[in-house]
Design a protein that fits this description.
It contains 5 helices and no strands. By secondary structure, the protein is an all-alpha fold. It has a domain of about 70 residues. The longest helix is centred in the N-terminal third of the chain and has 29 residues. The termini are far apart.
Length: about 130
Amino acid sequence: MSSEGYHEPLEQLSAETRDFHRAITSIIEELEAIDWYNQRAQACADEALREILIHNRNEEVEHAMMGLEWLRRNHEIFRKNIETYIGTSEPITEIEDAANADAARKLAPSESRQRPTELGVGNLRKVKR
C-alpha cells in the first residue's frame, strides 16, 4: 500500500504532497516491474513467452514515463532537471558542471563580488613539508 511510505502524519500533508507521493510511488512500482520483466525475459527459454515478457516490460516503461511527465508538468525542480539532463548527448557527469558554470556566468558582477571565496575554515589541503 502506498500510504506505508508516508513519513509524516497524513493529516499534516497537503493534497499536493499526497499526489506527489502517489506519483513517485507509482513510478517506483513501474521501474520495479520493468526490472522484473527484463530479468524474466532474459532467463526465459521459450521464445514466445520471452516476446510477451518483453512486450509487458515495454508497457511498464511507457507507464513510468507517463508518471515522470506528470512530475515534470507539476513540479518545477523536476522540470528544470529533466530539461538539464534528459535528451542530451554530453557525458552525463559533465552536464552539472556545465550548468553550474552557466549559472555562475549569469550572476551580475556585483553579486559575484559579494560571494565569499572561502568558507572561513582555512585551507584543508595538506601542507607539503
